[in-house]
Amino acid sequence: MKLYGCGNTPNPRKVKIVLAEKAIDYEMIELDLQNGEHKAPEFLQKNPLGRVPVLETDDGAFLTEAIAICRYLEALYPQPNLFGSDADDLGQIEMHLSQIESDLWFQVRSSWKNGPVLEQRGYQVAPEAKVFSDENVYAYYEKLNDELADKEYLATSRFTIADIILLVSLDFAIHYCKLNPDESLQNLWRWHGFVTARESVGAIT
Ligand SMILES: N[C@@H](CCC(=O)N[C@@H](CS)C(=O)NCC(=O)O)C(=O)O
Asked: Which residues form a coiled coil (predicted)?
């Protein structure tokens, strides 16, 4: 299979970590987003929305949306399990995944879309929206820090898709939006160091 992405952009990164966790062989096709390769007619045939990641399956089908691709990979390669193995496990993982997507990633995206980098590139931004989303991100860091007080991993006793989505969201917030968790949030930083040390994560950062 082939994965179309661009460096360590966050959505392709989610898929790359899942591929590495499951030790799946694939070919990486790098696109130059800065130069609009993802909007070229040839790529729009693969994803009419002009976004990455896109997975080209061995059957020649094209899948888009990072989480959908990750679920497809889990169904094809069930081990190691990342999305849940029984009802309780699945419920916990899905709950955390949903919270990270809506309460953290959504806010981080708002800070990015209304921040200085896109403004410098000529996009219309709403700096007042960034003030609110920044505050929400910092408040959520505090909640995460409390939640991780006595846990190694976010959702269950093992590394799951919830950890992957949190890690990618947090790294994007730190490296691209300058939204650093305060040094005092030691549980969050401990978790970050712990999951960053995994081979599947280290291999692509
Ligand atoms: N909902 C999609 C979002 C994909 C997305 O926004 N990808 C970014 C890179 S992380 C992209 O292609 N941006 C270029 C653009 O939107 O033009 C997913 O979950 O995969």
From this structure: none
pLDDT tops 80 at residue 205: no
187 CA distance to ligand 1 middle (Å): 30
**Nearest CA among 82, 62, 91 for reference residue 2:** 62
Q: Which domains are delineated in the chain? A: 2-76 (3.40.30.10), 87-202 (1.20.1050.10)
Q: Which two tokens stand for residue 3?
A: 């994965």
33 lines ligand 1 (CB under 6 A): yes
In tens, the pLDDT along 22-47 reads 999 999 999 999 899 999 999 999 99
pLDDT per position as a tens digit, 8-17: 999 999 999 9
- Ligand 1 lined by 51 (C-beta under 6 Å): yes
Whether residue 204 has pLDDT greater than 80:
no
